[in-house]
Design brief:
Layout lengths: L1 E9 L3 H19 L2 E6 L4 H7 L7 H6 L3 E6 L15 H11 L4 E7 L12 H4 L4 E7 L9 E5 L5 E5 L5 H17 L3 E6 L5 H16 L4 E6 H10 L6 E4 L1 H13 L8 E5 L5 E5 L16 H14 L3 H16 L2 E2 L9 E2 L2 H14 L2
Parallel strand pairs: 1-2, 1-3, 3-12, 5-10, 8-9, 8-10, 13-14
Antiparallel strand pairs: 4-5, 4-11, 6-7, 11-12
Helix pairs in contact: 1-10, 1-12, 6-7, 8-9, 10-11, 11-12
The structure holds 3-isopropylmalic acid and magnesium ion (MG).
3-isopropylmalic acid binds next to helix 4.
Length: about 350
C-alpha cells in the first residue's frame, strides 16, 4: 500500500518525537512492503510565530488530503491563556478535532510488561495488571458549548461555559465503546455524573439503550468521582471506559499516571471517515525541548494505533508494539522512566533501537 500521512510536528518536544515515529513508520513500511509519503502541516504555537495564527487557513483541508495525521504536541508558555484565542495552540487542537469530525478519542492505559515496577500503585494492585481503554467523547460537551463573560451589576464579572450533548453525539461514541469492548475483554463502564447533571442523565439513558443492543457486552454505570477513586484503587477492574469530553480529559491523565509514565501512552482520535489523528497524550514539555531527553515511545505507539485503526493493518501495529516491549525489556530507559542504575538513553537512541528491533524481528 501507499500511505499519505500528514505530520503536525508542533511545539516543544513535538518535532523530536515525531522524527522518531517517522523513522519507525518507515522501518515497518519497508518490512511489510508499503510506501509512505509525508506532508508537513503547520499548526500550533509554531504556526502563530510563523504566520500569526495557530490554525492557519487550509489546515484541515491539508489533513483531509491524507490517510492519517500524526501529531507531536502543541502548546507552551509563550502562547499562554492571556493571548488572543487565534494565537493559542489549544484553539488549533480543538478546531482540528471538530473540523475532522474526530468524536471518539481512544486512550489506552496499559502497564507494559517490562514496566511493571514503574506504577506508583501498590505492588499487589499493579500485579493484577492494568489494560484499560478510555474512550473520550472529543467534539462536544463543555469544550464546545457557548461561552460568555460579562459584567453584572452587583456581583462583578460573571462567566459561563455551557455543557450540551445530543442523543446523536452520545450514541455514536457509545457505539465505538461497545464495538471496542467486543474486541477486548467484553466490558463497558460508562462514566457520568447522573446524580447531578442533566447531560449525564441523557448520557446514561442512551448508554442503557445501547447496552441492550450489545447484550453480549457486560455493562456498568460509574459515577465520575467514584471512577477517579477506582482508577487508583483497582484499575484492573476496567476494560473499556466511555465518558464525556471533560471527564475523559481528567480521567485519562489519571489513568496514564498509574501505568508509570505519561511518556508511554498513545492516543487515536477517530470519526466516521478518514483521516484519523494520532498523538501522544503528553504535552509539549518545553522544559526539555531540543535536549534529546524526551520519550518518543508514546508517539511511536501512536503510529502503531494508526496502522491498527486507520490502515486496518494489525500485523504492522503488532510489530511496532513488540519492538517497543523488546527494547524496554532490554533495559533502555529515557530519563522520564529511568530509575537509578538503569541504562539511560536519549530520544534518538530510543528511536534507533526500536527501528532496529523492527528490522531484526522475524
Ligand atoms: C488533551 C489536552 C487538551 C484537552 C488541551 C491541550 C486542550 O489536555 O488532549 O487531553 O484538554 O483536550
Ligand atoms: Mg488532557
Amino acid at each position: 500500500m501507499n500511505y499519505k500521512i500528514a505530520l503536525i510536528r508542533g511545539d516543544g518536544i513535538g518535532p523530536e518525537v515525531v522524527n522518531e515515529a517517522v523513522g519507525v513508520i518507515d522501518a515497518v513500511a519497508a518490512k511489510f512492503g508499503h510506501t509512505v509519503e509525508y506532508v508537513d502541516v503547520l499548526m500550533g504555537g509554531c504556526a502563530t510565530d510563523a504566520v500569526g495564527v495557530s490554525y492557519p487557513e487550509g489546515t484541515a483541508e491539508k489533513c483531509r488530503a491524507c490517510d492519517a495525521v500524526l501529531l507531536g504536541a502543541v502548546g507552551g508558555p509563550k502562547w499562554g491563556p492571556d493571548k488572543p484565542a487565534q494565537q493559542r495552540p489549544e484553539t488549533a487542537l480543538l478546531a482540528i478535532r471538530k473540523d475532522l469530525g474526530l468524536y471518539a478519542n481512544l486512550r489506552p492505559a496499559m502497564l507494559r510488561p517490562a514496566m511493571a515496577d514503574a506504577s506508583p500503585l501498590r505492588k499487589e494492585t499493579a500485579e493484577r495488571g492494568i489494560d484499560l481503554m478510555m474512550v473520550r467523547e472529543l467534539t462536544g460537551g463543555i469544550y464546545f458549548g457557548k461561552r460568555d463573560k460579562y459584567q453584572t451589576e452587583d456581583r462583578g464579572m460573571e462567566a459561563t461555559d455551557l455543557m450540551a450533548y445530543s442523543e446523536k453525539e452520545i450514541e455514536r461514541v457509545g457505539r465505538r465503546a461497545f464495538e471496542l469492548a467486543r474486541l477486548r475483554r467484553g466490558k463497558v463502564s460508562s462514566v457520568d455524573k447522573a446524580n447531578v447533571l442533566e447531560t449525564s442523565r441523557l448520557w446514561r439513558s442512551v448508554m442503557h439503550r445501547l447496552s441492550e443492543e450489545y447484550s453480549d457486552v457486560e455493562y456498568e454505570d460509574v459515577l465520575v468521582d467514584n471512577c477517579a477513586m477506582q482508577i487508583v484503587r483497582d484499575p484492573g477492574q476496567f476494560d473499556v471506559l466511555v465518558t464525556e469530553n471533560m471527564f475523559g480529559d481528567i480521567l485519562s491523565d489519571e489513568a496514564s499516571m498509574v501505568t508509570g509514565s505519561i511518556g508511554l501512552l498513545p492516543s487515536a482520535s477517530i470519526g466516521d471517515s478518514a483521516p484519523g489523528l494520532y498523538e501522544p497524550i503528553h504535552g509539549s514539555a518545553p522544559d526539555i525541548a531540543g535536549q534529546d531527553k524526551a520519550n518518543p515511545i508514546a508517539t511511536i505507539l501512536s503510529a502503531a494505533m494508526m496502522f491498527r485503526y486507520s490502515f486496518q493493518k494489525a500485523a504492522e501495529a503488532d510489530a511496532i508494539e513488540r519492538a517497543v516491549d523488546a527494547v524496554l525489556a532490554q533495559g533502555a530507559r529515557t530519563p522520564d522512566i529511568a530509575k537509578p542504575g538503569d541504562e539511560v538513553v536519549g530520544t534518538r537512541e530510543m528511536g534507533r533501537r526500536i527501528r532496529e528491533a523492527i528490522e531484526s524481528a522475524k
